[in-house]
Amino acid sequence: MALAEMQTRSESASAEAADTFPKLLFGHAVQRGDRRAFREKDLGIWQSWTWAQAAREVTAFAAGLHALGFRRGDKLAIIGDNRPRLYWAIVAAQCLGGVPVPVYQDSVAAEMQFVLDHAEAHFAVAEDQEQVDKLLAVRDKLPGLKAIVYDEARGLRHYAHDFLVSYEGVQEKGRALLAKDPDLVARETAQGKGSDLAVILYTSGTTGVPKGVMLTYDNVLKTAANAVAFDHLTEREEMMSYLPMAWVGDHVFSFGQAYVAGYCISCPESSTTVMTDLKELGPTYFFAPPRIWETILTQVMIRIEDAGWLKRKLFHYFMGVARRAGGAILDGAPVGFKDRLLYRIGGWLIYGPLKNVLGMSRIRVAYTAGEAIGPDIFNFFRSLGINVKQLYGMTEAAVFLCMQPNGGVKLDTVGMPIKDVELRIADNGEVLYRSPGVFAGYYRNPEATAETKRPDGWTHSGDAGFLGADGHLRIIDRAKDVGKLKDGTLFAPKFLENKLKFFSYIREAVVFGADRDDVTAIINIDPQAVGNWAEKRGLASASYQELAALDPVYDLIAGCVTQVNRDLAAEPHLAGSQIRRFLILHKELDADDGELTRTRKVRRRIIGERFKSLVDALYSGATVAQVETAVRFEDGRTGTMRATLKIRDVEPAGPLRKAG
Prior knowledge:
globular; Luciferase, domain 3; 4 domains; 21% strand
């Protein structure tokens, strides 16, 4: 059956019959075949593909995979930056009844080996030489790996391996096979159904080894469709796809929702050109974790401080207007005539040009999730008129559980349950949920599946929170991390860490205190923000380690900690968990060193073990601590860092209200 006939079948099928991504793809190829579906910036030029062109590319690649021996149930590992061809590889595998397994592109070879081995992947698609080299380094430990397909040929010309084949080579094999058996891909696609396994996404492994989350087509499509309806997304949206393809957020925003709504996704030229490419693209729909929003704001403020006095004065004056009126105007709330007029003037002079520079002039809806976002950051972007909202979800729920409605955005909540989602708070404060997105299970891990999915249909989120009278969900911390100090005071480490990270000078923070007398913290400074602050004060440093050791930098961070303590002092249940001592770590926490997950989440247990001597020093009353740390460099070499770190005491803000 030719592609045209497959498209005709899709056109005549009802919407309910389009229960898999391949069926949706061929339906879009008919319904909006001439509309742009994918874009990629290559060598400074945007390249585009329509839905019809994408369908042809996918069909050829799917047939080529079949020619290589890929069969129903096989796993296809996909490794690389966001690229149209890699997104096409996902749906090509699904056409044949296979299961794509995206892998974090910055994984080291050993991490990659674990995922491919655990997922039992027999085939892999790698973006370039870097990813191919990592696969080759561990191939002897992956006897089941039959073929590696590469996209970018640069640097691979002299690689003589029978199992190594180019993306174009696979498509050529596919076209040759289709010439003999035109209806191959159509037959295979027709066998798919909504209850089939659509993808395996590995968790970041915050507390242990990563787990393979199995999501069906129904999981992803139904939750994506509900979210599309929630924000009235259409085929006319433009989306920048720049976050890791292995992360569930990208899989749903750049794949699931794009296929449901039929909108275009655009891939940046590289991770270093995202902000430039964002400006050229001007997306209407945007997602970024809090760290990205914080980085953008930090860059803006650094530029402003480097500007002339008049520009600085105008900026700060009109941002004051924006903070008073911008959020209310965005939400449609009443605003006085004077502030409304000033806000309009500010739009001409400040807000409009700034949004244009950031590439955010056309954003209709933007989201953030994954971590708590600082109030100053959140309010800054909303005051500009950028409709940034928060959502709550997880890989095991196909992302969407709660979303903030337009006009109902609240800083201290993660939104309300969306359609078909039920929430319940367990006796221990943990959030339980039921939804169409509840995952099928953890791959090859029935014990973990049984611990997460209850027989009564409710699923453990692992988060502690509560539902307010307004119907909004508020998250406190990870349920298992919530503890108490020795005197019984509530200790919520992530809550405290997020408060510290609300300051642009602090990149990461890890707090300790469970079953101890007081709370202490290990802090990573943000080298860009602190470096700029130090430069303006004539403070010289040649490295992160030297910058972090400066006394004025300690004074700066102490001010941040003191402000956090003031905020905690106003909370009766948390006043006793004020931070009493801290130190600034001599190195940045790094995923390659195992201290962060690939989604930049802190591995608190590992850090506590690796830096046990520092934690002990924080509680010993010492004023300095010695540390020796093994580090991994970008080229794979390992080394050792030694340092003497200062420890700073911080006075509590007012009397500590202890429990009891």
